[in-house]
């Protein structure tokens, strides 16, 4: 059981390694004047809006993982519940990271477009 949980966590962590928020922006044409200044300002805006985005998914995952493992367990329910809490919290945090990354990228793109830059992705 423990090996399976560990293996699943490793696979999930590897699949969550994409970091589209930090990928360079695609611009249709040349960059406008002030692009570098605006991108710093827009990144600060995006990061400010999503600074607490990991708490809820990690806590939810920990609660669900602990409950599911404790319910489906036999004699050693406390140890299984702790494994479920750790695994569920980890999975929830990774899902939160992915969602935060997507939200930040979306805010960054809209902010740059709102400042007159021809950003397409």
Automatic annotation (TrEMBL):
Species this protein is from: Roseovarius aestuarii
Tree of life domain: Bacteria
Alphabetical keyword list: Signal
Cleavable signal peptide: 1-20
Protein name per Swiss-Prot or TrEMBL: Glycine zipper family protein
